[in-house]
Predict the structure.
Amino acid sequence: MFDKILIANRGEIACRVIKTARRMGIRTVAVYSDADRDAVHVAMADEAVHIGPASASESYLVIEKIVEACKKTGAQAVHPGYGFLSEREAFPKALEAAGIVFIGPNPGAIAAMGDKIESKKAAAAAEVSTVPGFLGVIESPEHARTIADEIGYPVMIKASAGGGGKGMRIAFSGEEVAEGFARAKSEAASSFGDDRVFIEKFITDPRHIEIQLIGDKHGNVVYLGERECSIQRRNQKVIEEAPSPLLDKKTRRKMGEQAVALAKAVNYDSAGTVEFVAGQDKSFYFLEMNTRLQVEHPVTEMITGLDLVELMIRVAAGEKLPITQDDVKLNGWAVESRVYAEDPTRNFLPSIGRLTTYRPPEEGQQGKAIVRNDTGVEEGGEIAIHYDPMIAKLVTWAPTRGEAISAQAEALDAFAIDGIRHNIPFLSALMAHPRWQEGCLSTGFIAEEFPDGFTAPEPAGPVAIRMMAAAAAIDHKLNQRKRGISGQMRAPGLFAFERDRVVILAGQTFPVTVETEGEDLLVTREDGTALTVASVWRPGEPVWIGTIGSERVAIQVRSLLNGVFLQHAGAAAEARVYTRREAELAALMPVKEQAGSGKQVLCPMPGLVKQILVAEGQEVKNGEPIAIVEAMKMENVLRAERDAKVEKIHAKEGDSLAVDAVILEFA
């Protein structure tokens, strides 16, 4: 076994590998760029080596720097994590030449399966069902359109060396092929250093289901069940679960056996994932193979009880797999939410900044459920523009799917992040969505269910009642503190004065009576309905956790002038608690309306201006592309929202812009 390994990655996956290595008694070496000098993975490792500037192309993607770091520290092996160099055939070859072990598949397997085009050829040769498409070199946008016309629309344009949603575009017509081809090639070149793309038929109403494999250097390969990854946006996964609510035992075995046969055909000898696109009728087609550890591997670990990183390390060291196919048992259900630094109310545009608050939910056993949070950030840390916007992966396990979803919903409500925009409200809303709860999924789920984008719904029904009761309890606690500070606690008459209150929540009015009942509060509505509210929440804490009636509840809390902003179960609203007379007066106050700025095109996220597609004086039509902004490895096309004339352009190609910076103005 190795004494010391280097992790050629950053963020949560580097931290994840370090945890397993530490448990195995293996020392670890981290590498870091200028932007990651103070990162969590650097502090966690036993040693750390600086490898260059913030740009990945000058640091994490430079093979020579990784090899030199191994030589400098005496690391005997390298775990690549995912992304960066994890699927570059040249990387394990360079390590092997330097006498260093690659904790991943052999170069031949990477060459055969890591390249999307070559893997489809290998799958076809192994008689695995594949999606119709064109796997040759595509020379130009015109060539791409000819191919797409022959295949039939819609088509998927994909980077050959791609992954993580980068370098992927769907085209529904010939007009969309040219732009999709250009964007896919550009993103592929900047993210993977390889601009080759291919085109295949896009299966309508598809599901994304993948099989986890693990193989050793002795010819043994087993599959570890499947993961459902159909909840995606921009072809990037948002929520994953294991097992899939679609599959039965027969289909699971058929997919697993095909995946194993394919892996054995290329002598696969590490952790890998065979991805399939599946129809609602349980038909399935080979999509691609990822020759690395997947982002969503924790859900497989939770239902199998296996540590995939440990297995990767052991097989890289030459050990045989300690399990056979008959040993693999699936137990319970696991759900993973990817917590991203992005604004779901602005079409999921990236967000950067400092994490002024970062308080994940408590990990470990929570009743029947287990909570796990894989992360690489901490409070006070900075989310930079240079890398993927993922903050954490929140995973819950429970005996059943419904219980795992309930546990996930509660954990999301207890996850406090501030200082940047994030997608937790959207994830919470998804957990409460009836279609998600029923398991009626497809990769078009988000586009179909949120066609106009996401806006946090106002609280209604039981959610509103819980938020109202929590607001009353928070107000009571704040009033207690105020009395203590001012010395008024000796005046018990004030308590009687404040029993009758009015909670204003998102325009809804709740007259209530608030009374103490031992250590708890009794919140009684006008109809006589009484709720017992119990919590040890203290002013300043970002999450209110307690019980309302018999339910355990977590609610996000942020202070406002004369009130609080609450988020719970995907809903968000301001809450203010008044005396009855204050409520009457508040109802008379006019609402101030904000003016807009419809003549300006603002940068929707912090990013780099890749192209300005219009000129001053040019007439543009509604929907016409006007600029391309790159942020966190994704290119975003900005389009005109109305017919207009460009009056002045404020930005130029190569500019780094802050959010809401003016790009151009219309006349």
About this structure: The mean pLDDT is 91. DSSP finds 18 helices and 40 strands in the chain. The longest strand covers residues 221-233. Residues 67 and 97 are 10 Å apart (CA to CA).
